[in-house]
């Protein structure tokens, strides 16, 4: 089977069956599929896959809540970073200062009010989200984002002084994955194929764990 046929099969599967994936995250779940579908649609100049990706984004937005996990791999910081990525790569014409405002305020609030309960990994994942936000040249929240990143760094230094080295990134056990379709699974495999065909698609690599 050719690379192009593999890519088409993967895109069709995600577009037709992505709604069935119960995980929403970037590394493991729907957000990873969204990234692949937008890249595939651009490469093939087929807007039907952009529509399919947008439907998955709507499903993600409808399903997440304030009790959703923070973690990058399958939680809010990864989903937020994925949205910011799509805007910066011009897949979505959106104002992320507006769309991600609730994420900004929620994470910043947790840093100030729940600092005793945040793990080193939580802080690392939040910092990755805010650094992605800061890379947007259109943001009007540069001072807020910079101050929040500095607060995270200060908390990380405190963690390092009072705690042993933190457990690193939490990965979901493979047995718990109903469909490993995210950046660390089949979507990542498809994006690797796209990158081999057209190196302009290499930008997705910044999203990997």
Q: What share of residues is helical?
A: 55-70%
The helix/strand class is mainly alpha
DSSP summary: helix tally: 9
Sheet-strand content, in percent, reads under 5%
Shape category: elongated
Strand tally, please? 0
Order of helices and strands: HHHHHHHHH
Give the SSE map:
Elements: H1 3-17, H2 30-44, H3 47-63, H4 76-88, H5 96-99, H6 101-113, H7 120-134, H8 142-162, H9 186-197
Helix pairs in contact: 1-2, 1-9, 2-3, 2-4, 2-9, 4-7, 7-8
Question: How would you describe the overall organization of this protein?
Answer:
- The chain contains nine helices and no strands.
- It is an all-alpha fold and 209 residues long.
- The chain has one domain (3-207).
- Helix 2 packs parallel to helix 9 (186-197).
- The protein is elongated, with a radius of gyration of 17 Å.
- The chain starts with a helix and ends in a 12-residue tail after the last helix.
